[in-house]
């Protein structure tokens, strides 16, 4: 059974395999190929949190692959409240061919995978956002042509998105530099996984509190919200701490001249990123959003082994 819970679980080969599949599926779709690889398959989409990109891109991905997406809102399943996560996994597996879940606690998606008899895809947890990561590395490949020797700088909160970028960069041999305020860095256990993956590919990973250090010479400058879903009560405090990590024109001047700027969205314009940068010539924000669709088609086809 193939689940898709974190990029770290994949290893370098499967990471490349899914990325190659995404390139192939996107190219074919753009050329007018609509092979229904997932004909009559149903994806159950469990959401504990709001979403635009994840919800719509998975729904459309299933439609374009000849199957169906079934949206289950936070009020419906009430994972672990109305019934246990294990029972939800056992029941939903009897109806659908694959499950995607967006949860608060990462252990819920692990628990779903443990008890489901169909593949489970992590659509964002407090630990990682691997679907976003896969779309982001597809976007980097399209704009830069390769990964080795390229530098990805991440500024801001050491959150779920930063974790997936660390794992993906390490698996693909990219240099990864993260700058966070003190107390907001990646967890040491997460960093240890990144080190293990980087040792497999020769990637370098560095953590700093100095945003200039991280962004200098970067090919990719990435940021995300300072306050993730579930941390809303900390928003005011974080707004005081994070401004030095904002991606603005001055920050971008330290990166390579042809650097691309990335953000998983939703953006809080004027906080972690300025309008000038988000809408400027370096921005690839909406290519990233589009690539959620293509990358997730590859993830769905991969977990279901549907090319055979
Ligand atoms: N980037 C992302 O996952 O967006 P949504 O929260 O809108 O799904
Ligand atoms: N780090 C953000 C990503 C949103 C797509 C969050 O978890 O809210």
CATH architecture of the largest domain: 3-Layer(aba) Sandwich
Distance from N terminus to C terminus (CA atoms, Å) equals 15 Å
Low-confidence stretches: none
CATH class of the largest domain: Alpha Beta
- Choose one word for the global shape: globular
Instruction: Determine the structural class based on helices, strands and strand pairing.
Output: alpha/beta
Number of domains: 2
Strand arrangement, major sheet: 7-6-5-8-9
The number of helical elements comes to: 13
Percentage of residues in strands:
5-15%
Walk me through this protein's architecture.
- By secondary structure, this protein is an alpha/beta fold.
- 44% of the residues lie in helices and 13% in strands.
- The strands form two sheets. A five-stranded parallel beta sheet has the order 7-6-5-8-9.
- α1 packs across α13, α4 crosses α5 and α6 packs across α7.
- The longest helix is centred in the first third of the chain and has 20 residues.
- The two termini are 15 Å apart.
- The mean pLDDT is 97.
- The site of phosphoric acid mono(formamide)ester has 9 residues, from α2.
Which characteristics define this entry?
9 strands, binds phosphoric acid mono(formamide)ester, alpha/beta, Rossmann fold, four-stranded parallel beta sheet, five-stranded parallel beta sheet, single chain, globular
């Amino acid at each position: 059974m193939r689940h898709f819970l974190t990029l770290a679980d994949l290893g370098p080969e499967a990471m490349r395999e899914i990325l190659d599949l995404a390139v192939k599926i996107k190219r074919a779709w753009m050329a007018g190929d609509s092979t229904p690889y997932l004909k009559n398959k149903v994806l159950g989409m469990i959401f504990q949190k709001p979403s635009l990109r994840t919800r719509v891109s998975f729904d459309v991905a299933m439609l374009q692959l000849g199957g169906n997406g079934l949206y289950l809102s936070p009020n419906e399943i009430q994972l672990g409240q109305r019934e246990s996560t294990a029972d939800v996994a056992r029941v939903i597996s009897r109806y659908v061919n694959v499950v995607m879940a967006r949860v608060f606690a990462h252990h819920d998606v692990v628990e779903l995978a443990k008890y489901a008899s169909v593949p489970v895809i992590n659509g964002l947890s407090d630990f990682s956002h691997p679907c976003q990561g896969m779309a982001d590395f597809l976007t980097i490949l399209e704009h830069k042509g390769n990964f080795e020797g390229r530098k990805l700088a991440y500024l801001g909160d050491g959150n779920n998105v930063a974790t997936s970028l660390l794992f993906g960069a390490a698996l693909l041999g990219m240099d990864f530099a993260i700058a966070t305020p003190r107390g907001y860095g990646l967890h040491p256990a997460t960093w240890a996984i990144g080190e293990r993956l980087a040792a497999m590919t020769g990637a370098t990973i560095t953590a700093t509190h100095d945003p200039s250090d991280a962004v200098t010479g970067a090919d990719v400058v990435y940021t995300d919200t300072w306050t993730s879903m579930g941390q809303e009560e900390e928003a005011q405090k974080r707004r005081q701490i994070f401004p030095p990590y904002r991606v603005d024109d001055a920050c971008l001047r330290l990166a390579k001249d042809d650097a691309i700027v990335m953000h998983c969205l939703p953006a809080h314009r004027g906080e972690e990123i300025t309008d000038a940068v988000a809408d400027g010539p370096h921005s690839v924000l909406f290519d990233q959003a589009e690539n959620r669709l293509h990358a997730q088609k590859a993830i769905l086809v991969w977990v279901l082994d549907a090319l055979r």
